Amino acid sequence: MFKLGGRNGLKLITAGSVTAFAFMLQGCVPAASGGGVASSGDASTPATISQADKAEGAKAHPQLLQEFGGAVTGSQAAYVEKVGKGIAMQSGLGNARSDFTVTLLNSSVNNAFAIPGGYVYVTRQLTALMNNEAQLAAVLGHEVGHVAARHSAKRQQAASRNQLLGALGSILSGVLLGDSAFGRLGQQVFSQGSQMLTLKYSRSQELEADDLGIAYLQRAGYDPRAMSTVLESLARQNALEAQLRGTSNQVPEWASTHPDPASRVRDALAKAGANATGITNRDGFLTNIDGLIYGDDPKQGIIDGSNFTHPVLRLSFQAPDGYYMVNGTQAVSINGGSGKAQFSGGNLSGSLDAYIDTVFASLTDSNQTRITPANIEKAAVNGIPAAYGVARVQASNGPVDVTVFAYDFGGGKAYHFVTITQAGQAGVFNPMFKSFQRISAAQAGSVKPRMLDVVTVKPGDTVQSLAGRMAYSDAKLERFLVLNGLQSNSTLQAGQKIKIISY
């Protein structure tokens, strides 16, 4: 699984409805039957994709598309599909290119994965981070390698022994509470954390998938060193995002199961050979991905600093000072040292009090006891009817407050925050609650996506001058260097293609 942090887009769900995807990935990657995949560590064994795997993959495919923002269409997607099918064929899993379905996902998460049945996925965000076709083939080959080595079957067995946390609980419990006091918190409301479930490969499995991906690259005639260089770009991107969030000293979530990034880069280079050669097709790759949306898609909401704006839903709010946001498919998470929160929405068929009760009904503590507020208070925020309830819950490290703050947006729609803080500190989110507002059509129309723009270096252009064109107010140089796999002392040549981010 190639994921080292990122964002995806907010979508509406019905409060209280069961979001099955949090556990769906366990069901859609069963152990193959009848020789459906090659044996672990043997990428050369010819194999067919079993009918059972095809059926499971076909069932999971539309759910995965929904979870990861849908499929990108057009020439960019067709190019990724061509490269993906080509590298997947090197695994021996299928007898024809038509055995594979390769999808470019409309997601701002740096992510790629594959599931049995011949389904391979990569996000536009991760694709934009790459700098040549060999790197794209490396990432997709790594994911196919997980399937070829039957890692998902082994992961499923481990999951059956250790019940996974619910979506919001998996984010909040370990970070804020230090235990599983809210193991199911948000399981029936949010599914953003479901993307985390696809990270549960072991260190040895990640290294094995790297090795298999390198073997596939060599067979296809690509430069096998691409595995090392794309891993380096991923590590640098993750470090930059952590720095921008002010969490550079924290161990990233994936580090508990993933090998140390630096050693993984070195291992991949050693496996490929420092002097290896092969096709990279840098210019062709850059030409084919030019114009991809970069970062948040306005259709899914935009995070800009501490502000979240959704031009389609016509709303916005602001996170408290010192907090950072992550835009997920089902919710926006808000993270900081004094508490955690998520923003989502649903259908409002009754009173706002009933809506809040429904949200609370989906939350349970570690004893599977329903969390209920002491009372529900009425409020009004920027002309929008609102209400909130606070429940105090005992956790292992002391009492905590769980708050649900909801808004009647009209038209049968409601939106709400769920927050967790140490007892007595729920007010830290008051500025955020009060910032929620409608936006005008003009404000919505002013929200523009960032785009990947491939430009040709002109005489006199420098790293610094091109970095100055990046569509950001901060860390322009750092973003430019990571995006292009460059160092601060890198020099550019006239005629060279390079990536910048523009509006």
Automatic annotation (TrEMBL):
SMART domains: LysM (SM00257)
Domain of life according to the entry: Bacteria
Pfam families linked: LysM, Peptidase_M48
Signal sequence interval, chain numbering: 1-31
Any one GO molecular function term: metallopeptidase activity
Protein name (Swiss-Prot/TrEMBL): Metalloprotease
InterPro entries: LysM, LysM_dom_sf, Mito/Outer_Membr_Metalloprot, Peptidase_M48
Segments forming a coiled coil: none
Cofactors demanded by this protein: Zn(2+)
Residue ranges of domain LysM in the record: 453-500
Organism, as annotated: Novosphingobium indicum
Keywords associated with the record: Hydrolase, Metal-binding, Metalloprotease, Protease, Signal, Zinc
